UniProtKB/TrEMBL annotation:
Family the entry assigns: Belongs to the Orn/Lys/Arg decarboxylase class-II family. LysA subfamily.
Occurrences of domain Orn/DAP/Arg decarboxylase 2 N-terminal (ranges): 41-296
Gene assigned in the entry: lysA
Residue numbers binding pyridoxal 5'-phosphate: G248, E290, P291, G292, R293, Y390
Pathway: Amino-acid biosynthesis; L-lysine biosynthesis via DAP pathway; L-lysine from DL-2,6-diaminopimelate: step 1/1
Needed cofactors: pyridoxal 5'-phosphate
Source organism phylogeny: Bacteria, Bacillati, Bacillota, Bacilli, Bacillales
Organism: Jeotgalibacillus malaysiensis
GO BP annotation list: lysine biosynthetic process via diaminopimelate
EC code(s) of this entry: 4.1.1.20
Record-given protein name: Diaminopimelate decarboxylase
Reported function: Specifically catalyzes the decarboxylation of meso-diaminopimelate (meso-DAP) to L-lysine.
Catalyzed reactions per annotation: meso-2,6-diaminopimelate + H(+) = L-lysine + CO2
Length: 441
């Protein structure tokens, strides 16, 4: 079995994370439970920053908070000195409530509302990543109303097909995001924003997709952007101070996945970027990146309690857990694959194959197909690895299932950072009919 970060086995033979016994965590906080190995997140954050330092390149590493955001998570990101990518008013609100330095916040999104833009301007955030022509006009109008300027990056689509799942591709021409680099839209947008007295145009942004294992796509995107930067430097006298290459660095979910080490992505891409800048006689801009999954993905583990099982003769053994697509929708959405162990005896030899079913009323609510597993019984704890990105963040209340609790574990201490939702939480915003013969409790 592949263990991530600080995960280990203790003297009782139980899986530990951050030096804490996962069985004790399940007993204390209940299941399903998201457990984060925060030391691993810190190591990843430091690794990215050190790689840039080693390369002698000015940078901002912005955590893509869509991967997993909470007050405590944002505090941790602030402690590590990273910047933050937010993509909605809600993510921005969370960051501001967590005391995050607004100067280091970058605001994304392909349809920012006027209210979200106003909120971000009022908070004096560091940068807007402008996605489309409508947003140029809207942002300029709201800046004018408030008599405030905004630093911006233009998000471009470089026309790159990264090798990943279709739903998480974003750099290709036919995408809802950004200004097309090839068909002249990006240039038109650049001319517009350069003329606008409310904008301080910092540079360009692209994000070609997620869970990418090779650097080729990133390098091709950088090549296309740098070619345009060279052309615009001469034609428009536009000298980009910032080149943002987005996130998307892949991680290992199962033994079939072979990602590069996170620092290696940066090293290979930036080495090439430096070379291209020299070739085009451009001075090196600040490089920004936006890792989400590669900071938190393998630092998260979900603990479930095993419940019912069903044997379909000659076909399959189903084993159900007390969560499912309500706490992790990725298998249903992307056919995402995971590995898991029985946390109370992770080292025991697997002697059967089961398919892990969720408890939602949906045939597609399957967490893992054909998992080799050791002996187990109802009440045992199943630990599903690598659920730290887009797991809790995409959790929902389907079937009115309360969202789970989240715990940070580090140096033998566990800290509850998100409480489990209660049934009361589920009906908090429900309003009874005003004129009904049925009285509610
Ligand atoms: C604009 C942008 N930046 C960064 C990210 C983070 O991607 P990842 O979690 O794959 O690093 C995403 C999500 O794919 C994104 O859309
Ligand atoms: N939510 C996706 C990634 C999309 C990232 C946002 N652009 C995942 O779980 O893999």
């Amino acid at each position: 079995m592949h263990y991530y970060g600080t995960s280990s086995i203790n003297e009782k033979g139980h899986l530990t994370i951050g030096g804490v016994d996962t069985i004790e965590l399940a007993n204390e906080f209940g299941t399903p439970l998201y457990v984060y190995d925060t030391q691993l997140i810190r190591e990843r954050a430091r690794g990215f920053k050190e790689t840039f330092e080693k390369l002698g390149v000015s940078s901002q590493v912005a955590y893509a908070s869509k991967a997993f955001s909470s007050i405590a998570m944002i505090q941790l990101i602030a402690e590590e000195g990273l910047s933050l990518d937010v993509v909605s008013g809600g993510e921005l609100y969370t960051a501001l409530k967590a005391g995050f330095d607004p100067e280091k916040i970058h605001f994304h999104g392909n349809n920012k509302s006027p209210e979200e833009i106003a909120m971000a301007l009022d908070a004096n955030i560091g940068c807007f990543v402008v996605d489309n022509f409508y947003e140029i006009e809207l942002l300029s109008r709201i800046c004018a109303e408030k008599d405030k300027s905004a630093s911006i990056l233009l998000r471009v689509t470089p026309g790159i097909e990264a090798h990943t799942h279709d739903y998480i591709l974003t750099g290709q021409e036919d995408s809802k995001f950004g200004f097309d680099l090839q068909n002249g839209q990006a240039e038109e947008a650049l001319k517009m924003v350069l003329k606008d007295r409310y904008f301080n145009v910092l540079g360009l942004h692209c994000h070609i997709g997620s869970q990418i294992f090779e650097t080729t796509g990133f390098i091709m995107a950088a090549e296309k952007m740098i070619e345009k930067m060279a052309a615009w430097s001469t034609a428009l006298d536009f000298k980009a101070q910032v080149l943002n290459l987005g996130g998307g660095f892949g991680i290992r979910y199962t033994k079939e996945d072979e990602p590069l080490a996170p620092g290696k992505y940066v090293e290979d891409i930036i080495t090439k970027v430096k070379q291209l800048m020299t070739e085009h006689q451009l001075s090196m801009p600040e490089i920004w990146i936006e890792p989400g999954r590669s900071l938190t993905g393998d630092a998260g583990t979900t603990l479930y309690k095993i419940g019912s099982s069903k044997h379909v003769p000659d076909v399959r053994n189903y084993l159900a857990v007390d969560g499912g697509m309500s706490d992790n929708i990725r298998p249903a959405l992307y056919n995402a694959r995971y590995e898991a162990v029985i946390a109370n005896r992770p080292e025991d030899k697997a002697d059967s194959i089961v398919s892990i079913a969720g408890k939602c009323c949906e045939s597609g609510d399957m967490l893992i197909w054909d998992l080799p597993i050791t002996k187990h019984e109802p009440g045992d704890v199943l630990a599903v690895f690598c659920t730290g990105a887009y797991g809790y963040a995409m959790a929902n209340n389907y079937n009115r299932i309360p969202r789970p609790a989240v715990v940070f574990a580090e140096n033998g201490q566990a800290e509850l950072v998100i409480e489990r939702e209660s049934y009361e939480d589920l009906i908090r915003h429900d309003l009874p009919l005003k004129h009904s013969g049925v009285d509610v409790k």
